[in-house]
Protein backbone atom coordinates (compact mmCIF):
# COMPACT_ATOMS: atom_id res chain seq x y z
CA UNK A 1 0.00 0.00 0.00
CA UNK A 2 1.43 3.40 -0.93
CA UNK A 3 0.17 4.92 2.28
CA UNK A 4 2.04 6.84 4.91
CA UNK A 5 0.33 5.50 8.04
CA UNK A 6 1.55 8.36 10.22
CA UNK A 7 -0.31 10.75 7.87
CA UNK A 8 -3.46 8.63 8.21
CA UNK A 9 -3.24 8.82 12.00
CA UNK A 10 -2.45 12.55 12.19
CA UNK A 11 -5.19 13.57 9.75
CA UNK A 12 -7.73 11.32 11.50
CA UNK A 13 -6.74 12.87 14.83
CA UNK A 14 -7.20 16.37 13.36
CA UNK A 15 -10.77 15.50 12.36
CA UNK A 16 -11.81 13.83 15.65
CA UNK A 17 -12.43 17.04 17.69
CA UNK A 18 -15.23 17.99 15.27
CA UNK A 19 -17.32 15.18 16.79
CA UNK A 20 -20.77 14.36 15.47
CA UNK A 21 -20.61 17.08 12.78
CA UNK A 22 -18.18 14.83 10.92
CA UNK A 23 -20.54 11.90 10.48
CA UNK A 24 -23.46 14.24 9.73
CA UNK A 25 -21.40 15.81 6.94
CA UNK A 26 -20.40 12.37 5.64
CA UNK A 27 -23.98 11.08 5.34
CA UNK A 28 -25.24 14.36 3.86
CA UNK A 29 -22.46 14.18 1.27
CA UNK A 30 -23.12 10.50 0.51
CA UNK A 31 -26.89 10.83 0.15
CA UNK A 32 -26.64 14.06 -1.87
CA UNK A 33 -24.23 12.49 -4.35
CA UNK A 34 -25.59 8.92 -4.28
CA UNK A 35 -29.28 8.97 -3.31
CA UNK A 36 -29.49 5.38 -4.59
CA UNK A 37 -27.72 4.07 -1.44
CA UNK A 38 -30.14 5.81 0.99
CA UNK A 39 -32.68 2.95 1.02
CA UNK A 40 -30.01 0.50 2.23
CA UNK A 41 -29.83 2.33 5.54
CA UNK A 42 -32.48 1.99 8.21
CA UNK A 43 -34.62 5.03 8.96
CA UNK A 44 -32.75 5.66 12.23
CA UNK A 45 -29.28 6.79 11.30
CA UNK A 46 -28.26 8.17 14.70
CA UNK A 47 -26.78 4.97 16.10
CA UNK A 48 -25.36 4.00 12.73
CA UNK A 49 -23.43 7.27 12.50
CA UNK A 50 -21.50 6.53 15.66
CA UNK A 51 -20.84 2.91 14.74
CA UNK A 52 -19.31 3.74 11.37
CA UNK A 53 -16.96 6.32 12.85
CA UNK A 54 -16.08 4.05 15.79
CA UNK A 55 -15.28 1.26 13.31
CA UNK A 56 -13.10 3.59 11.28
CA UNK A 57 -11.24 4.58 14.46
CA UNK A 58 -10.68 0.91 15.30
CA UNK A 59 -9.35 0.27 11.79
CA UNK A 60 -7.01 3.26 11.98
CA UNK A 61 -5.76 2.05 15.38
CA UNK A 62 -4.97 -1.38 13.89
CA UNK A 63 -3.39 -0.43 10.58
CA UNK A 64 -0.16 -2.14 11.54
CA UNK A 65 -1.77 -5.19 13.17
CA UNK A 66 -2.38 -6.89 9.86
CA UNK A 67 -4.10 -10.05 11.16
CA UNK A 68 -6.47 -8.08 13.40
CA UNK A 69 -7.16 -5.58 10.62
CA UNK A 70 -7.93 -8.22 8.00
CA UNK A 71 -10.18 -10.13 10.42
CA UNK A 72 -12.13 -6.96 11.26
CA UNK A 73 -12.52 -6.10 7.58
CA UNK A 74 -13.65 -9.62 6.65
CA UNK A 75 -16.31 -9.60 9.36
CA UNK A 76 -17.45 -6.11 8.33
CA UNK A 77 -17.49 -7.15 4.66
CA UNK A 78 -19.63 -10.25 5.33
CA UNK A 79 -22.12 -8.20 7.37
CA UNK A 80 -22.25 -5.52 4.66
CA UNK A 81 -23.07 -8.10 1.99
CA UNK A 82 -26.01 -8.99 4.26
CA UNK A 83 -27.14 -5.33 4.29
CA UNK A 84 -27.35 -5.47 0.48
CA UNK A 85 -24.16 -3.47 -0.06
CA UNK A 86 -22.64 -4.16 -3.51
CA UNK A 87 -19.07 -3.71 -4.74
CA UNK A 88 -20.17 -0.70 -6.78
CA UNK A 89 -21.26 1.14 -3.59
CA UNK A 90 -17.76 1.18 -2.11
CA UNK A 91 -16.28 3.93 -4.35
CA UNK A 92 -19.24 6.19 -3.47
CA UNK A 93 -18.61 5.77 0.25
CA UNK A 94 -14.85 6.21 -0.26
CA UNK A 95 -15.38 9.51 -2.12
CA UNK A 96 -17.64 10.85 0.65
CA UNK A 97 -15.26 9.65 3.33
CA UNK A 98 -12.32 11.45 1.72
CA UNK A 99 -14.40 14.60 1.08
CA UNK A 100 -15.38 14.60 4.78
CA UNK A 101 -11.84 14.10 6.04
CA UNK A 102 -10.61 16.84 3.69
CA UNK A 103 -13.35 19.21 4.92
CA UNK A 104 -12.46 18.82 8.62
CA UNK A 105 -8.71 18.13 8.58
CA UNK A 106 -7.84 21.75 7.82
CA UNK A 107 -4.11 22.35 7.46
CA UNK A 108 -3.45 18.68 8.16
CA UNK A 109 -4.80 17.87 4.66
CA UNK A 110 -2.20 17.62 1.88
CA UNK A 111 -1.94 15.70 -1.42
CA UNK A 112 0.17 13.07 0.37
CA UNK A 113 -2.56 12.66 3.00
CA UNK A 114 -5.21 12.25 0.31
CA UNK A 115 -3.10 9.69 -1.52
CA UNK A 116 -2.60 7.74 1.70
CA UNK A 117 -6.33 7.69 2.47
CA UNK A 118 -7.12 6.59 -1.10
CA UNK A 119 -4.65 3.70 -0.73
CA UNK A 120 -5.98 2.68 2.70
CA UNK A 121 -9.60 2.86 1.54
CA UNK A 122 -8.63 0.72 -1.47
CA UNK A 123 -7.39 -2.00 0.88
CA UNK A 124 -10.42 -1.63 3.18
CA UNK A 125 -12.92 -1.89 0.34
CA UNK A 126 -11.23 -4.69 -1.59
CA UNK A 127 -10.92 -6.79 1.58
CA UNK A 128 -14.56 -6.15 2.55
CA UNK A 129 -15.84 -6.90 -0.96
CA UNK A 130 -13.81 -10.13 -1.23
CA UNK A 131 -15.12 -11.35 2.15
CA UNK A 132 -18.70 -10.48 1.14
CA UNK A 133 -18.35 -12.41 -2.10
CA UNK A 134 -17.42 -15.59 -0.24
CA UNK A 135 -20.73 -15.54 1.60
CA UNK A 136 -23.00 -14.43 -1.22
CA UNK A 137 -21.34 -16.97 -3.53
C1 LIG B 1 -14.82 2.03 5.48
C2 LIG B 1 -15.83 1.23 5.14
C3 LIG B 1 -17.00 1.00 6.06
C4 LIG B 1 -17.03 0.94 7.41
C5 LIG B 1 -15.87 1.08 8.41
C6 LIG B 1 -18.42 0.69 7.79
C7 LIG B 1 -18.87 0.54 9.09
C8 LIG B 1 -20.14 0.12 9.44
C9 LIG B 1 -20.54 -0.30 10.77
C10 LIG B 1 -19.62 -0.36 11.99
C11 LIG B 1 -21.84 -0.63 10.72
C12 LIG B 1 -22.71 -1.11 11.90
C13 LIG B 1 -23.12 -2.55 11.74
C14 LIG B 1 -21.97 -3.54 11.68
O1 LIG B 1 -20.94 -3.39 12.37
O2 LIG B 1 -22.09 -4.49 10.88
C15 LIG B 1 -22.28 -0.42 9.33
C16 LIG B 1 -23.55 -0.66 8.85
C17 LIG B 1 -23.96 -0.39 7.58
N1 LIG B 1 -23.17 0.08 6.54
FE1 LIG B 1 -21.20 0.38 6.61
N2 LIG B 1 -19.18 0.64 6.66
C18 LIG B 1 -18.35 0.83 5.58
C19 LIG B 1 -18.72 0.85 4.25
C20 LIG B 1 -20.03 0.84 3.81
C21 LIG B 1 -20.42 0.95 2.42
C22 LIG B 1 -19.48 1.04 1.22
C23 LIG B 1 -21.77 0.94 2.39
C24 LIG B 1 -22.61 1.06 1.14
C25 LIG B 1 -23.56 1.95 1.01
C26 LIG B 1 -22.23 0.77 3.77
C27 LIG B 1 -23.54 0.66 4.19
C28 LIG B 1 -23.95 0.22 5.43
C29 LIG B 1 -25.32 -0.17 5.75
C30 LIG B 1 -26.50 -0.16 4.77
C31 LIG B 1 -25.33 -0.56 7.09
C32 LIG B 1 -26.52 -1.05 7.90
C33 LIG B 1 -27.26 0.17 8.36
C34 LIG B 1 -28.47 -0.12 9.14
O3 LIG B 1 -28.49 -0.99 10.02
O4 LIG B 1 -29.43 0.60 8.86
N3 LIG B 1 -21.14 0.74 4.60
N4 LIG B 1 -21.22 0.04 8.60
Q: Can you characterise this structure?
A:
The chain is mostly helical and 137 residues long. The protein is built from six helices and no strands. The mean pLDDT is 91. The two termini are 27 Å apart. Helix 2 crosses helix 3 and helix 2 crosses helix 5. The chain has one domain: Orthogonal Bundle (Globin-like), CATH 1.10.490.10. The longest helix has 26 residues. Helix content is 73%, strand content 0%. It binds protoporphyrin IX containing FE. Protoporphyrin IX containing FE binds next to helix 3, helix 4 and helix 5. This is Flavohemoprotein. InterPro entries: Globin, Globin-like_sf, Globin/Proto. One of its GO terms (molecular function) is oxygen carrier activity. Pfam families: Globin (PF00042). Keywords: Heme, Iron, Metal-binding, Oxygen transport, Transport.
Name the features.
137 residues, Globin-like, binds protoporphyrin IX containing FE, mainly alpha, heme binding, single chain, metal-binding, 6 helices
Low-confidence stretches: none
**Mean pLDDT over all positions:** 91
| Ligands, ions, cofactors | protoporphyrin IX containing FE
Number of strands: 0
> Which CATH class applies here?
Mainly Alpha
Q: What fold name stands as the CATH topology? A: Globin-like
Order of helices and strands: HHHHHH
CATH architecture: Orthogonal Bundle
Share of helix, binned: over 70%
Number of helices: 6
Taking the sheet with the most strands, its summary is: none
Number of domains: 1
Q: Structural class, from helix and strand content?
A: mainly alpha
- Radius of gyration using CA atoms only: 14 Å
> How far apart, in Å, are the first and last alpha carbons?
27 Å
CATH superfamily: Globins
Gross morphology is globular
